[in-house]
Prior knowledge:
Layout: E1 2-11, E2 14-24, E3 28-33, H1 40-48, E4 55-60, E5 72-75, H2 86-91, H3 98-107, H4 111-115, H5 133-146, E6 151-154, H6 160-166, E7 173-177, E8 189-192
Parallel strand pairs: 3-7, 3-8, 5-6, 6-7
Antiparallel strand pairs: 1-2, 1-4
Helix pairs in contact: 3-5
Amino acid sequence: GITLENVSFSYQDKQVFNQVSFRFEPKGIHFLVGPSGSGKSTLLNLILGVYVPHEGRIVFDQANEELEQDTIGYVPQKVTFFNTSLRSNLLMGRTVSNQQIKEVCTALNIWEVIQQLPKGLDTVYGEDIKLSNGQIRRLAVARALLSGAHWILLDRENQAYLMTCLRELRDHSFIIVTHTSDMIQANDRVIEVQSL
C-alpha cells in the first residue's frame, strides 16, 4: 500500500494539506473526488514524488526504497506520444516480450486496433494513424502497465469504457482523479480529498 504519515503541503501561502494521515490499500480502485482546487492533482504529485511534503512522509510498502518510483505508473490528463513506433511509445526503452504487450493490450481492448494499423506495433505514431481519445488513453494505460508498475495513477479520468477494462485488472491498484461520480461503483474506495 501507500501510506501518508502526517503530510503537510502548501503552495506559498495556501495550505493544501495539514497533517494528513491516510492509507491506500493495495488492489482495487481508489477515486479522489472533490471540487476544483481541493488538492486532488496535488496529492497525485506528492505520491509521484514531483512534490515533496513540507512535513511528514509518504511510505511505500516495499522494503527496498529504490523500488518506490518503479512501482508507480502515471497517466496524465494530456497524454504525450512521440513520433516513433507504437512499440517504442509503449515500451519507452524497456525490454518486454511481444506476448506481454499483446496480453496487456488485449486486457485494455486495444490489441485489435493495433493489429489493424498498417504496420501493427511498428506503425509510427502520427503518420496515418487516426485514434480516438479513448484509444489513446488505453494505450497510455498500457504503457504504464508495461513499465511493471503495481500502482497506476490517472488524472481526470472520464472514459467509462476504460474503467470497464481497469476493473478486470484485479492484480493492480489504481488511484483516479475524477470530477464525476457516475463511474464509481459500490466496491470502489472513494476519498473526499478536501476532508482529509
